[in-house]
Structures are given as C-alpha cells and as structure tokens.
Amino acid sequence: MADLNPNVLPYAEQLRVRVCGICIEDNKLLLVRHGKTVDNEAFWAPPGGGLQFGESMRACLVRELQEEAGVQVQVKRFLFVNEFLHPPLHAIEFFFEVQLTDGTIITGTDPEAASDKQLIEQVEWLTIKQIQQLPLQDKHQALRHLFSLDDLLGMKHTFKA
C-alpha cells in the first residue's frame, strides 16, 4: 500500500481535472514544492490545480497561480496533456505556457484546505541543473527526463510516464 500523506486524502480515489502553468524566466522554471504526497518526501511540480465546474481552463490557471504563487499571469499556448496516475491519486493535467504580468513570488495557500492541512511548502525558481538533482520520486513526471527547460515547451501533446 502507498505511503500516503493524510492531507492528500481529499484528492484521493477520484479523477481530477487539473490545469498547470509552465513559466520560464531567466532560464529558471517556477515550481511549487508540496509536502509529502505519495511515496516521497516532497513533490515539486509546476503550479496549478483543480478545474472547478463551469470554469474555463484559462481562468482556472490564472486563479491557481494567484493562490499558489501570488502572481498574475497571461495564459499563452497549450503545451501538452498528462495523465497523473499514482494510486490513490489520479488526474488528467492540461499544461499551458504562462507569462508573468504582475506580482512578486510568494508561497501561497490552497483555499480549499485548512491552515493545518496545507500541502504547499515553497514556491521557487529552479534551474535545469537544480531540477535534475532532485530525487526522481520527488518531482512531477513532466520534469523527470528534461535536458533543458525548452524541452517543456516542445513536448508531444500527450504523454504518460
């Protein structure tokens, strides 16, 4: 059985639709470090979150970047879709290129989670070298086999690791 953080339980055993942003500036990628999720010590991933009923993907991404990182973004082009399947977590994730338009990076919160059940621990700009040095199980599968940050902008439209 998977080693599951109890704070992840609200997201378990259901299919979620998520929208995520790829934001690259000065050869660094904006990433969110979540606390332990499933079978890891931390989980680094691009910012993003769950699509709400009636919400467009672009509106979701703008909202999520504001909540998680305290910034305003312009949503650019669609990049790829990913199936995240690590039972009991399952999500279909749509990735878009985003560009910062306003704000200063902060470590935000998830308004759906109580203050003592937050998963977001850190929001940082990481270089490709820093990403490559993270333990494999501690980074999102879209980050696991990168040779450069530009690889994220030219991925096939669909993949599953």
From TrEMBL:
Domain Nudix hydrolase: 13-149
Cofactor: Mg(2+)
Pfam families: NUDIX (PF00293)
Keyword list, A-Z: Hydrolase
Superkingdom of this protein's organism: Bacteria
PROSITE patterns: NUDIX, NUDIX_BOX
GO function terms (MF aspect): hydrolase activity
Family the UniProt entry places it in: Belongs to the Nudix hydrolase family.
Protein name per Swiss-Prot or TrEMBL: 8-oxo-dGTP diphosphatase
Originating organism: Pontibacter akesuensis
